Amino acid sequence: MSGSTLGTLFCVTNFGESHGPAIGCVIDGCPPGMALDAADIQHDLDRRRPGTSRHVTQRNEPDAVEILSGVYEGRTTGTPIALLIRNQDQRSKDYGDIALRFRPGHADYTYWHKYGLRDPRGGGRSSARLTAPTVAAGSVAKKWLREKFGTQLRACMTQLGELPIPFEGWEHVAQNPFFAPVADVARYEAYMDELRKAHDSCGARIRVQASGVPVGLGAPLYDKLDADIAYAMMGLNAVKGVEIGDGFASVAQRGSVHGDALMPQGFASNHAGGMLGGLSTGQDIEVSLAIKPTSSILTPRPSIDIHGEPVEVSTRGRHDPCVGIRAAPIAEALLALVLMDHALLHRAQCADVRQAVGPIPGNMD
């Protein structure tokens, strides 16, 4: 296993390098007959792409997607869907200084030891550039889930570095470069401007939610829906922690509080994040991600070279001072990929199971 494939029935294989001629993915297992064209995918790619504000990398990539196979006369055929995104704004010369030395906090050191060589241009295979094909594949999954179940996915930033971001409303997320659920982002813009002047970086916290998820997705013991969600989210560059529902806050809760009471009208709360026993409850799926600070920064730091000799590393090039700023559409895509895969798995095994109790319970609030 190369680690580049996600999913069992809805299977996505990601390929390419940050500064190669192109990046992309192959989706195998998409059901036939769904209307699909490049415009269905491009919207989410535009949300993720670099150069959209002064607070992210200024690499200018159009990220225009090409559908090479798996679609005929505007509908999916059930055969593999190949999606291609050409790289057009590489500046590989910026990485000459780090070809033989390791950036602290970066995958340079581990890639070198595992494979015996690495592509230093923009991070090569370890670059966040490779999240673009994930977003493209996620758009296909989101469309199928929306048409099949009415599932909606959305994400927002809930913390930038040391600054918590209060939740005011989902309507604000698309109106600012931070995907922040607040009307006024001046405080966060000033914070990023100071961070850039200091040649440093910061982390972020991202919330991702799926509503309209059917009951029963997932399987015991090791194919739990929340386990697969955590697995997929940890595959996103720079993610160091995943919480489901109340996550670590559950430690301080009493069972009388954490257990989500069932009422005829639905669940009274959603501390569990929409999953019980690894199966979806029909409530909103709630996931939170902790994203570490970007490791490629201009501030000089001690490290070693490939010979084990001490060196000082200062990384030039165009980098996101906070990779979490563009993480919201990626988190949505990853959640969609897992839900799509589990929806197909559920349909394969349990399509004939009759619903045991009433309508699908949702959140009372």
Fraction of residues in helix: 10-25%
Tell me the Rg in angstroms: 21 Å
Count of DSSP H/I helices: 7
| CATH fold annotation | Chorismate synthase, AroC fold
Strand content: 15-25%
How many angstroms does the end-to-end distance come to?
Answer: 43 Å
Helix and strand content put the structural class at alpha+beta
Average of the residue pLDDT scores: 92
Give the biggest beta sheet.
5 strands, antiparallel
**Shape by Cα distribution:** globular
Strand order of the largest sheet: 1-2-3-7-4
Oligomer: single chain
Low-confidence stretches: none
How many β-strand runs?
18
Report what the structure shows.
With 365 residues, the protein is α+β, with helices and mostly antiparallel strands. It has a single domain (5-350), classed as Chorismate synthase, AroC fold (4-Layer Sandwich). The protein contains seven helices and 18 strands. The chain has helices spanning 38-48, 108-115, 131-149, 186-197, 225-234, 255-258, 328-350; strands spanning 5-6, 11-16, 22-28, 65-67, 71-72, 75-76, 81-86, 152-160, 163-164, 204-211, 239-244, 262-263, 266-267, 275-276, 279-280, 285-291, 301-304, 310-313. The strands form six sheets. The protein has a five-stranded antiparallel β-sheet with strand order 1-2-3-7-4. The relative contact order is 0.17. The model has no long low-confidence stretch (mean pLDDT 92).
